[in-house]
Input
Amino acid sequence: MENNSKLGTPEQLRDPNYTPPLASAIPLGIQHVLAMFVSNVTPAIIIAGAAGFGFGSNSPDFHNLIYMIQMAILFAGVATLLQTIGFGPVGARLPIVQGTSFAFIPIMIPLVAGKGVDAMAALMCGVMIGGLFHASLALAIGKIRFALPPLVTGLVVMMIGLALVKVGIQYAAGGVPAIGTPEYGSMKNWFVALVVVFTTLGFKFFTRGILSVAAVLIGLIVGYIVAYFMGMVSFAKVGGAASFALPNPFHFGFEFSIAAIIGFCLMAFISAIETVGDVTGITRGGAGREATAEEITGATWADGLGTACAGVFGSLPNTSFSQNVGLIAITGVMSRTVVTIGAIFLIICGLIPKVGAVISTIPIEVLGGGVIVMFGMVVAAGISMLAAVNWNRRNMVIFAIAISIGLGLQLEPGALQHLPGTGQVLLSSGLLPAAFIAIILNLALPEDIDAEQTEEMSGGMSGRPQDK
Output
């Protein structure tokens, strides 16, 4: 916990419009950036890797990977400014940090898998149109919350994590390009990844304050240093990266894609509810009050428009970052000026391609150690949300059917081979069918399913013999 006596009175620290002394506000703002930095750039690296470009020192598309990292940093800053400063009805005017969303990765991977840079045009179509649809949800956000109780949101968050844990293991073993070679899964690769995992755990549980909050970042730095001394880091491409560059509109082009549009629009519901939860968490934890309708609506507008704007320039969807909600609880500082300073820092870094080039030198095995922890925490967050569910027989049936079909399709996408391409892309993520089934069943099934009915469905697992 920070020494808050020098920052302001308790009333001032709970006021989003209060500005602490700059000598304290600047490091607090950078602290917010450190807490989210790794999570923010990771989706860009994962999508580039899934598409099959940017990796390897001889890759002709290396500059596109650097560009995606640069845009992830830049538009996290831009979207954060939309939240903190606001523009008309847009923005919650609260200390909300925006960053690239993990939630969309399971639906983005099938859209780009193995298709190279050319697949990014259709993906950006989804980001832009999905972002505009997300923004429009601000008009009805209060009316759709009833359809997404903890049973649904917890299941969706858990499914996001389950869809991503495979990526963490692949990265730790050497990455998709190494599959089928003797290097894949070597002890050298696993050693570096495990250094990151154990360093992260050490700082997360045996330190306090920013050292604990930034544990993943510290773990990656330690792993990076170890990998450097093991000869796994190359700076060959850093020198060629520009020192300053402006974003390029429609960098990857624009290609109309029904699958991308449907996928991003459906996920917008989940992302919008996630943001509502973060806004509520910030006002409760930082100001000791409930969020107002204007704050929730403004946050949803900023979420969607930030995403649409990012898509225009070749970046991925943005959402509010929950780890920064926790950081506000740790520091006790509710000032939106502090987060605005962090956003400006992100924008400056996003205009310097050399920053992206340095990040791209992180060996994939090092990143694997970090994402194993991050994606595992996503699964754990989903389970934590499910803990609030009343596990009666009705809810158990809904959960069972949704996860069986969703996870099953994710593990066996070949079962969808007779569907059109759009259907395969949307369903093979497992995430969308699980969410759809959970939402529909939750709305359709009566609250009091007969006990004997669910006993039959469970096959008498309680040990009671079933009637024939």
In short: The mean pLDDT is 89.
